[in-house]
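Schema walk-through. Below, the input block comes first and the output block second. Nothing else is stored per chain. Lengths vary across the set, and this one has 92 residues.
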Amino acid sequence: MTKSDLIQWLAEEHPALSTSQAESVVHQLFQSIQDSITSGEHVELRGFGSFTIKQHHPHIGRNPKNGCSVEVKAKRIPFFKPGKALREAGKK
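--- output ---
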């Protein structure tokens, strides 16, 4: 399912919402999740999963092409952990 599929589904499931209103709802939801994650907050959607940021510290890596050592800078990576209900639904 893509973002546009989600918008279309939401507009069809809730006739009171126009497609543009459904698009606004989906955009605001994704934007609020993104804003929370980038500010360092933990986002948990019960039954679905949680979004966090994992901090990767700087370290010395290796270039696989030539074998030279390379300094890898610190970075923050978004991480999604599925909830129990989602994990169990995926096993069916």
